[in-house]
Amino acid sequence: MPAVRNANVVQIPLFPRVILSDVGAAARNGTATAEGSGRHIQDDTSILALSRPARTFTGDFYFTHRHRDRLWLAHGDVAGKGLPAAVVMAMIQEELEHRITSCAATQCDPAATMQRLHEFLRPLLPNNRFATGVIGYLRDDGTLTIANGGHCPPLIIRRNGTIEEIGSTGPLLGILNGAKWRSMKTHLAPGETLVLYSDGVTESCADLGVEGLKRVLATARTPEDVLAAIGTTTDDVTLVMVKR
C-alpha cells in the first residue's frame, strides 16, 4: 500500500520501508529524506516524521490533515508486532482518514473522534488486541486541543527548554464498553515543538522511559537524532515532531 498524499493529507504507509518520495506533490515545500521518514510543511508548521518497523510490517500509525485554520494530527499504536498488528493498523488508518476529515469539516471535538474510532474497533478486535492513540488539532493561533487514549504522553518542548507531558484523557481503545474520553487544551508558541511517539521509543534497548526521552530531546532536533541517541530497538518505532 503506497503512501497516501494530497494537498491536505499525509499518511504513513502499511509498508514503511518503501522510500517516501515526491512529498512536494503533497506540500510544496516538503521533502522526503530517508527510508520510512519524511518532512513536510503545512503553512508555518513543520512536521518531521520517522517510522522504523521491528519486522517487515508495522503496527504504528500517524496521520495529518489540514482544514482551514486547523492542522489535525493522529498518532497511535496497535498492540503486537508484525502482520496481525499491521492489518489492524491499516483498518484504523482508513477509519481515521474518514473520521478526521469528517470531524474537521464539522469542527467537532477530538474526543468525539476518539469515541467513534473506539466504537469502530470494539467489535473488530479480538480479546487480546487493543490500540492506543492520540487525536488532536493545532490551530494557527497555537491553540492545541488533544485527546489521549492510553498512548505514550505527548511531549511539548517549550522555548525555555522545559518539557511538559500530556497524560491520558481516557482509556485504551477497543476494549471497554462505555469508555469515554475528554480533550484538553494548551498552547504551542512559535519556536515550540509537539512530540508524538510510540512505546517502541521509550521501551528501546536503551530503556529510556519518558524521562530518558526528555533528556534526549534536550539536544535532539529531528526524529533521526532521537533514534541515533537511543540505538537499536526491538519494537516498532514511530516519532513525529510538529514544530511551530
Explain the overall architecture.
With 244 residues, this protein is of the alpha+beta class. It has a single domain (4-44, 58-198), classed as 4-Layer Sandwich (Phosphatase 2c, domain 1). It has helices at 82-106, 110-121, 199-202, 209-217, 223-230, and strands at 4-5, 9-11, 37-42, 45-52, 60-67, 70-78, 131-139, 143-149, 155-157, 163-165, 184-187, 193-197, 237-243. The strands form 2 sheets. It has a 7-stranded antiparallel β-sheet, covered by helices on one side. Helix 1 crosses helix 2. The two termini are 31 Å apart.
Set down the secondary structure blueprint.
Layout: E1 4-5, E2 9-11, E3 37-42, E4 45-52, E5 60-67, E6 70-78, H1 82-106, H2 110-121, E7 131-139, E8 143-149, E9 155-157, E10 163-165, E11 184-187, E12 193-197, H3 199-202, H4 209-217, H5 223-230, E13 237-243
Antiparallel strand pairs: 1-2, 2-5, 3-4, 4-13, 5-6, 6-7, 7-8, 8-11, 9-10, 9-12, 12-13
Helix content: 10-25%
Number of domains: 1
CATH structural fold name:
Phosphatase 2c, domain 1
Low-confidence stretches: 1-35
| Structural class based on helices, strands and sheet pairing | alpha+beta
- Strand elements, count: 13
Question: Judging by the overall fold, what is the CATH architecture?
Answer: 4-Layer Sandwich
Which strand order do you get reading across the main beta sheet?
1-2-5-6-7-8-11
CATH class: Alpha Beta
Portion in beta strands: 25-35%
Tally the helices. Answer: 5
Major β-sheet profile: 7 strands, antiparallel
- What is the CATH superfamily label? PPM-type phosphatase domain
Shape: globular
- Which series of helices and strands comes N to C? EEEEEEHHEEEEEEHHHE
Radius of gyration: 16 Å
